[in-house]
Amino acid sequence: VQLQASGGGLVQAGGSLRLSCAASERTFSRYSMGWFRQAPGKEREFVAAIRRSSETTYYGDSVKGRFNIFRDNAKNTVNLQMNNLKSEDSAVYSCAASIAILSTPLTSEDVYRYWGQGTQVTVSS
């Protein structure tokens, strides 16, 4: 599956952005989806994930209560609504797809088979 992320940009602290990830496959609903980010000089960090059923979501501790992940299986997209952005949220954000079984944790990048290119998010303070 090919993934295309979009929606990044420059925003002031406290502002909002919505990232979108479009998948090329009609079988998109079979994949659990995740967002990761990587800032310069830092390791890739888990941001959020959503099961293929859309019933269960997961968030990194640093974004809980501010970010919301949701998917539209009819449109083959997964979105990340980011609110109350902080300067430390600045990073390249990438979406990823996993075919892992439902019991597999989605917080590790190792369970994701397919990755999209990143989109840059810059939060100015």
Description:
This protein has no helices and eleven strands. It has strands at residues 3-6, 9-12, 17-23, 32-38, 45-50, 57-59, 67-72, 77-82, 91-98, 114-115, 119-124. The mean pLDDT is 95.
Layout of strands and helices, then pairs:
Layout: E1 3-6, E2 9-12, E3 17-23, E4 32-38, E5 45-50, E6 57-59, E7 67-72, E8 77-82, E9 91-98, E10 114-115, E11 119-124
Parallel strand pairs: 2-11
Antiparallel strand pairs: 1-3, 3-8, 4-5, 4-9, 5-6, 7-8, 9-10, 9-11
The radius of gyration computed from the alpha-carbon positions, rounded to a whole number of angstroms, is 13 Å
- Helical fraction equals under 10%
Poorly predicted runs of 5 or more residues: none
Distance between the termini: 37 Å
Strand content: over 45%
Mean pLDDT: 95
Number of helices: 0
Shape designation = globular
Number of strands: 11
**Secondary-structure element pattern, one letter each:** EEEEEEEEEEE
What class, by secondary structure content? mainly beta
Largest sheet, strands/sense/barrel: 7 strands, mixed
Summary?
With 125 residues, this protein is mainly β. It has strands at residues 3-6, 9-12, 17-23, 32-38, 45-50, 57-59, 67-72, 77-82, 91-98, 114-115, 119-124. 0% of the residues lie in helices and 47% in strands.
Defining traits:
single chain, 4-stranded antiparallel β-sheet, 47% strand, globular, 125 residues, mainly beta
